[in-house]
Specification:
Number of helices: 5
Radius of gyration: 15 Å
CATH topology: Alpha-Beta Plaits
Distance between the termini: 17 Å
Largest sheet: 6 strands, antiparallel
Strand content: 25-35%
CATH class: Alpha Beta
Shape: globular
Bound molecules: ligand X6L, magnesium ion
Number of strands: 8
Structural class: alpha+beta
Length: 175
């Protein structure tokens, strides 16, 4: 069993509906179980700034899937939830990024772990710090340390706390 962290984002259509459905489908997938949710954040778009605001959160899970099998599951759920691949970094119904897989490093054409942009993204580091402040990355950095060095932590606000969110998505299940 390996501890993994996923980043979810949505900025098209019923953003919360897509996030909620993605969380439920991930948790139901064979070989993967959610162990913690961050709060839900509304965040200003980064990259292509001419698009609507995102809802973002980070999920902690445990898995006995390989990184590649877990990636395939994430991509399948994106597809089920209507994601269309348009221009790079364009708007999406749901994006599920594999951020960290234990302390492993992986560099393949279609899968790079740790996620190459996570270390400078407030919309990843702020929610990750909430659920795993002392987490150590493969390079030895802590999430808390990366966040301390981050220049721009603006444009992100909590829209629902983690307890209320977990209750809304998973009912009375205890994390
Ligand atoms: C220069 C060049 C500056 C590229 C930034 C930043 C590219 C972020 C891609 C960049 C650049 C990304 C989300 C988002 C995207 C999200 C919010 C990406 C991929 N995904 N903005 N922008 N949340 N707030 O999940 O992360 S596109
Ligand atoms: Mg992404
Ligand atoms: Mg992605």
């Amino acid at each position: 069993m390996t501890a993994v962290y996923l980043g979810l984002g949505a900025n098209l259509g019923d953003r919360f509906g897509y996030i909620q459905e993605a969380l439920r489908r991930l948790d139901r997938a064979d070989g993967f179980r959610i162990t913690q949710l961050s709060s839900l954040y509304e965040t200003e778009p980064v990259g292509h700034v001419q698009q609507g605001p995102f809802l973002n959160l980070v999920v902690e899970g445990v898995t006995d899937l390989t990184p590649r099998a877990l990636l395939a599951e994430c991509l399948a759920i994106e597809k089920q939830l209507g994601r269309r691949r348009g221009r790079r970094w364009g708007p999406r119904t749901i994006d599920i990024d594999l951020l960290l897989y234990g302390r492993r490093r992986l560099q393949a054409p279609d899968l790079v772990i740790p996620h190459p942009r996570m270390k400078e993204r407030a919309f990843v580091l702020v929610p990750l710090d909430e659920i795993a402040p002392r987490l150590v990355l493969p390079g030895g950095e802590t999430v808390r340390g990366l966040l301390r060095n981050l220049k721009n932590k603006d444009g992100i606000k909590v829209v629902e706390g983690r307890v209320a969110l977990a209750d809304r998505v998973f009912g009375s299940r205890y994390f």
